[in-house]
Structure formats: C-alpha cells, structure tokens
C-alpha cells in the first residue's frame, strides 16, 4: 500500500499528460509483469524488486486513474458512482484471503503468483475500456507565459518542472489544510487492520475464528462505501467533508476501544464500526478533491494527497509493532493509534468554515468592484 500511494504524484502527471486509459493499462501491464516474474524466482531480494517495486508501482498506475475517470462522467452522482466502484473491492477483501490460503496450500506460492497475474491481465483489458471525456491537459496560459519569460537554461528547466508538477493546487488554503489533516489521520489508520488478527490470537487464544473479523471489516466497508456515496451526493459543496471528520473521529475512538474489549464479540462490534469508517473515508475522498480544485486539477490533487499519505500510513504499523515488542502487548499501540485520526478529524472540520469565509470575502470584493464601476459611470455621465 505504501508503494501504491508513494507513486501517486508521478501517476497524476502521467494521467494529466497521456490520459486515464493509457496510464491505467500501462500500470496494469507493469503489475502483471511484476507478479509473473515473482513466480519464477525464489530469492527474497529479487522479490523485493519484482513484487515490492514492479507490482507496487504498476498497481499505483492502475489504481489512481480509476478514481479520476469517474469525474469525467459523473458530477451530480459522483459520490454514488465512486461508492459502487470502491465497494467492489470489498468483495475481494472478504474472499481473497480465503482464496489465497486455499490455492497457496494446494498449488504452492509460485503458481499462486501466476494466478494473481492472470487477474492483472484481465485488468489490462478492462483499463482499455476507459473513454476519457476531458482531454489530457495541455499547456495552459500560465505555462505559455512561463515559456515566454524563460531567458536561460535554468529558467527553462524551472518552467518545464512547473509544467509537469502542477503545484498550483497547493495555493488553495483549503486544499493544504485538507491534505495535512488526512496525512495526520492516516498515521494510525492502518494499525488495527495490520495488527488486529495478531492481537486476537494473543488475547483470545481459545478462539480460532479470526476470519470473522475480516468478513466484518469487508462487509461493513462495502456498505459504508455505498451509503456514504449516496449521502455525499445529497450534501452540497464542501460540507461533505464532515463525513470524513465523523469517520476519523469514530475510527480513533474504536482504536482506543480495542484493548477494552473483554470478549471476542466486543472485537467483532469494533470491526463493524472500523469497516464503516473505512468506507466513508475512502469513498468521499475523490468527490471532495473535485470540489476543492475542480475537474481539470483533480488528478494531481488526488495524486499529491495520496503521496502525502504514503509515509505516515506506512510508518504507523511498524511503530505499533515496535511498541508491542517493547511492552509485550498491544494496549499502548492501539491507544496511541487512536490519537492521529482524532487530531486529523479536528483539522478537517475547519476546512468548510475557511471555505465559507473565503467565499464571503470574494462576494464582498465583487460587491465593492461593482460599486466602484457604478460610481465611475455616474461621474462620467455628470461630466
């Protein structure tokens, strides 16, 4: 996951320049090569490259365009469309672990990689069905001005960098705060997903039904994606950010509740809520990006956001694992994992307020301009 998110800023550039279809198909092809080549080696070091790098980067190139392409076709029902698409992955989240366990013990790891590569080959064909409506971004007015202003090699290099790395999204205060809030929240986001099964094995040794937790997480995550998409379409503008605020706050509380569960059934209830929080957070992310920066810059806005999420999301589970090894249990790890989502939710809650203040300021400035124009016209008529 860390590699998928880490490559996202680069993926956004390719999506803007060559389009969603070519980017997604190329990424799926790279991921296919990574999985297939992993089946022909037994060296762990080589698999770091074939599976970790090739498959991770390819999956990133295949994943992000699937979020962007929806904005080409949907506006009023973008949340619902995103929820339906994202909800499909939950079916695999529930079934794939059992499927991999079964075929892994039957045909071995090498052939399992080959079976998975067949899925990626199918994704290549599916990616070719993308038909982007919005054209790949070309040189904008600002880019042409940069070229005219470039007088030497250094300035030309800077102009080319600005052309491909569209940093204008960071000029929007609301986007900066939103991206910072989410990056903060995901520091503890993946901790329960990675360590919950191990925690149950340690605390409830007599229970051998850990698979129930995966089913609960996948089922409620799928439900949350469908429901949040429909609800998000009914909420105007940036007020839909409050769905993310609620999901992060609840996720943080649920992380802190895990050590308090005295029975396995209590952990199941926590997993049901964790799945809902995951569904609400994931589905509403792309519609908010389109609201903040518009459809033409949404690709890079999503890419930069996922890139910012990569480091804290990857760092959270290892930190929790270190705390477990140091203290001998997961109690402190889960308590601390609940803090970043709560802080991130509080940060996100100010984005709609700042947006409203900026709109009011623009309206006041526009009103002043109109008054100045009318006064000028009246003075001209008097003369």
TrEMBL record:
Keyword Acyltransferase: no
Single GO molecular function: thyroid hormone transmembrane transporter activity
Gene3D superfamilies assigned: MFS general substrate transporter like domains (1.20.1250.20)
Species: Chelonia mydas (Green sea-turtle)
Catalytic reaction(s) noted: 3,3',5-triiodo-L-thyronine(out) = 3,3',5-triiodo-L-thyronine(in); L-tryptophan(in) = L-tryptophan(out); L-tyrosine(in) = L-tyrosine(out); L-thyroxine(out) = L-thyroxine(in)
Protein name as catalogued: Monocarboxylate transporter 10
Membrane-spanning parts: 51-73, 80-100, 112-134, 175-191, 211-229, 241-260, 266-290, 302-324, 330-354
UniProt GO cellular component terms: basolateral plasma membrane
Protein keywords: Cell membrane, Membrane, Transmembrane, Transmembrane helix
Annotated membrane topology: Multi-pass membrane protein
Family: Belongs to the major facilitator superfamily. Monocarboxylate porter (TC 2.A.1.13) family.
UniProt cross-references to InterPro entries, sorted A to Z: MFS, MFS_trans_sf, Proton-linked_MCT
Chain coiled-coil ranges: none
Protein task: Sodium- and proton-independent thyroid hormones and aromatic acids transporter. Mediates both uptake and efflux of 3,5,3'-triiodothyronine (T3) and 3,5,3',5'-tetraiodothyronine (T4) with high affinity, suggesting a role in the homeostasis of thyroid hormone levels. Plays an important role in homeostasis of aromatic amino acids.
Major site of localization recorded for this protein: membrane
Subcellular location: Basolateral cell membrane
Protein's UniProt keywords contain Signal: no
């Amino acid at each position: 996951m860390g590699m998928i998110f880490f490559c996202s800023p680069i993926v956004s550039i390719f999506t803007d320049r060559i389009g969603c279809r070519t980017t997604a198909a190329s990424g799926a092809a790279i991921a296919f090569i990574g999985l297939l080549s992993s089946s022909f080696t037994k060296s762990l070091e080589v698999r770091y490259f074939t599976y970790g790098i090739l498959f991770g980067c390819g999956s990133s190139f295949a994943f992000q365009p699937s979020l962007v392409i929806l904005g080409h076709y949907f506006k009023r029902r973008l949340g619902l469309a995103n929820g339906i698409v994202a909800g499909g992955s939950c079916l695999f989240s529930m079934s794939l672990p059992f499927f991999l366990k079964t075929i892994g013990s039957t045909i071995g790891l090498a052939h399992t990689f080959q079976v998975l590569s067949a899925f990626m080959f199918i994704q290549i064909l599916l990616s070719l069905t993308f038909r982007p409506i919005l054209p790949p971004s070309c040189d904008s007015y600002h880019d042409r001005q940069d070229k005219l202003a470039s007088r030497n090699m250094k300035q030309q290099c800077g102009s080319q960098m600005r052309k491909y790395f569209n940093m204008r999204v960071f000029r929007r205060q609301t986007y900066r705060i939103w991206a910072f809030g989410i990056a903060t929240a995901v520091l503890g986001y993946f901790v329960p997903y990675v360590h919950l099964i191990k925690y149950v094995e340690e605390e409830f040794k007599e229970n051998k039904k850990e698979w129930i937790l995966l089913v609960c997480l996948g089922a409620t995550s799928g439900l949350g994606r469908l429901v949040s998409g429909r609800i998000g379409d009914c909420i105007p503008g940036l007020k839909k950010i409050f769905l993310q605020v609620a999901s992060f706050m609840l996720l943080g509380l649920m992380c802190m509740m895990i050590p308090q569960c005295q029975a396995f059934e209590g952990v199941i209830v926590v997993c049901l809520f964790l799945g809902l929080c995951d569904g609400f957070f994931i589905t509403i992310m792309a519609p908010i990006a389109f609201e903040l920066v518009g459809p033409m810059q949404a690709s890079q806005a999503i890419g930069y956001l996922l890139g910012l999420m990569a480091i804290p999301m990857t760092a959270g589970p290892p930190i929790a694992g270190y705390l477990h090894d140091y203290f001998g249990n997961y109690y402190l790890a889960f308590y601390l994992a609940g803090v970043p989502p709560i802080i991130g939710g509080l940060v996100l809650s100010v984005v709609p307020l700042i947006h409203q203040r900026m709109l009011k300021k623009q309206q006041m400035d526009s009103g002043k301009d109109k008054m100045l124009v009318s006064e000028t016209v009246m003075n001209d008529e008097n003369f």
